[in-house]
Design a protein that fits this description.
seven-stranded parallel β-sheet; 14 helices; globular
Length: 360
């Protein structure tokens, strides 16, 4: 029984891969999730029942209590062998809902709450909450080496944890090639338009790069609560002709294949799954070394790391890749080799399924 509060974004992409690749002879899957976004469609497209309940991302005592009661009712009705919780909010709601029940509980934070950009006081509170809830968890899965190390800093019990690196289906990217904007130099971004993914920084980069690359086009795949603010800032800077807003896509691989260069500019990440997606499409990535991203990108080998959120530095590297095809192709090819060897969905699923079978 998977439980996710996230209706869109990286967790949904993770579950999409999971549902597409699990061993149907060994496992049955079911899902508890909100009705918003595309998570329900992802489940049902794979023949998986989705139980829709109201869950919200922010702390809301009354709504959260109602969510816990509904989740507990579904758990007791279905009685799954394992409850698999995805991200912090579902992790909290699900573990409280399962108190006193005999089901095994697995938790995947997909990026710890105490690694977000917030005050040290809040980080300390989040860490204490996670330590308490860890006592009601049978297995905690970290999606990157960095996530595991961050958990140790906040004293999450080591004996509860294991690392299963995130992965993608590389074969999806073999089916697509660039299909539009052939006359443009396309700078791509995939992610939610929210504080974590930092989309406003794209505009700062655009203001730096457009005078140097007049045919530049920023191709944005995603949506979210910052969309209005984002588009207003684009309008204010008279950049409309330099931005293509694709919105949410049911085929991210097809979108990414239209990029010439891809950007990872998040303020925090547990793993940074989209970096692997860029690599699988042979797109050179310029990113910041947050969370698991620094475990994936080897600077100037399979991508480029920029230490600060400096639009001038991003601009310089974008221009360098545009003008040096040999370097661009070398980075892109090494990225493809690395993602194929290290981040295979088949290897990830085999490891996870063994853990779940041993647990049950």
């Amino acid at each position: 029984m998977h439980i996710s509060q996230a209706p869109i974004g990286g967790v949904v992409e993770y579950l999409k891969l999971y549902f597409n690749n699990y061993d149907q002879e060994l496992f049955d899957q079911e899902l508890i999730c909100p009705s918003e976004g595309n998570i329900t469609d992802v489940a049902r497209a794979n023949g998986i029942k989705a139980n829709n309940i109201k869950m919200v991302r922010e702390i809301s005592p009354l709504t959260d209590l109602k969510s816990i009661i509904e989740i507990r009712g579904i758990i007791k009705e279905v009685n799954p062998d394992i409850i698999y919780l995805h991200s912090s909010k579902a992790g909290a709601l699900g573990r409280i809902a399962a108190l006193g029940l005999s089901n095994k509980v697995v938790y995947n934070a997909h990026g710890w709450s105490f690694t977000i950009k917030t005050s040290n006081i809040k980080k300390s509170i989040y860490g204490k909450i996670e330590r308490v809830l860890a006592h009601f968890t049978d297995l905690i899965i970290n999606v990157s080496k960095d996530e595991y190390e961050q958990a140790l800093i906040y004293k999450i019990p080591k004996e509860k944890m294991i690392t299963v690196t995130n992965a993608i289906d590389v074969d999806l990217y073999k089916k697509h090639s660039k299909s539009k904007f052939f006359e443009k130099f396309v700078i791509g971004f995939v992610g939610r338009l929210d504080e974590q993914k930092n989309p406003m920084f794209l505009i700062d980069i655009a203001l730096e790069i457009i005078p140097k690359i007049p045919n530049a086009l920023f191709y944005v795949v995603g949506d979210g609560e910052l969309k209005k603010e984002f588009t207003e800032k684009i309008n204010q800077n008279q950049l409309n002709q330099y931005f293509y807003m694709a919105g949410w896509s049911s085929n991210v691989a097809e979108e990414i294949c239209n990029f010439d260069v891809a950007l990872m500019i998040s303020k925090w990440e547990g793993f940074g799954l989209v970096v692997c997606e860029y690599m699988a499409a042979r797109k050179p990535v310029i990113g910041v070394p947050v969370g698991g991203v620094k475990n994936i990108i080897n600077h100037k080998k399979n991508g480029i790391l920029v230490s600060e959120y400096n639009p001038s530095e991003f601009s310089e590297y974008i221009l360098e890749l545009k003008e040096d095809d040999i370097s661009k192709d070398s980075i892109a090819n090494q990225a493809y080799i690395d993602v194929t060897e290290k981040y295979s969905i088949k290897a990830m699923m085999a490891k996870q399924e063994k853990l779940l079978l041993d647990l049950s």
